[in-house]
Automatic annotation (TrEMBL):
Keywords: Leucine-rich repeat, Repeat. The lineage of its organism: Eukaryota, Metamonada, Diplomonadida, Hexamitidae, Hexamitinae. This is Uncharacterized protein. SUPFAM superfamilies: L domain-like. Pfam families: LRR_4. The keyword Repeat applies. InterPro entries: Leu-rich_rpt, Leu-rich_rpt_4, LRR_dom_sf, SDS22/Internalin_LRR. It comes from the Eukaryota.
Length: 149
């Protein structure tokens, strides 16, 4: 069965609590563009292995978690300009260049991904917390981030 954005919108409308929508173990979820029509500021996706894409997602979400969802591309995330907190931990993301557009971003978790180039993060002047820093290049960035303040 292939559900449309409208189907997901209707399916999850009643699950919204305090402007937060949490979706867990949904293997049919392939896009989060359905959130464009929902009155939420926080979206949490956990173990949703449907090959999620972020294309066509323009919403007022300020807090986004996509945890352990086999996410490999964040193309389209640059349209989510309101994001202040982003958790992409335990995925397969390797290219984070679009994060440079998220100028409101304050907290970021990239733990357990395949990221090699973090130069995009240098443009995030409001970034205060960057978690999941394990590799040498990330350590250099953390030092630069500390010296900025």
């Amino acid at each position: 069965m292939n559900l449309s954005d409208e189907d997901f919108e209707e399916l999850y409308r009643d699950d919204i609590e305090d402007e937060t929508l949490e979706i867990e173990d949904d293997i049919q979820l392939q896009s989060i563009s359905f959130v464009n029509k929902l009155p939420i500021s926080k979206l949490i996706l956990s173990q949703c292995c449907g090959g999620i894409t972020l294309q066509r997602t323009q919403s007022n979400i300020t807090n986004l978690t996509i945890y352990q969802c086999d996410l490999s591309s964040i193309n389209g995330i640059k349209q989510m300009m309101q994001l202040r907190e982003l958790d992409l931990s335990v995925n397969n993301v390797s290219d984070i260049s679009e994060l440079s557009y998220l100028t409101a971003l304050q907290k970021l978790d990239l733990d357990a991904n395949r990221i090699a180039d973090i130069s995009a993060l240098s443009k995030l002047v409001k970034l205060q917390v960057c978690l999941g820093i394990r590799q040498g290049t990330f350590s250099i960035f953390l030092i630069q981030l500390i010296w900025r303040y």
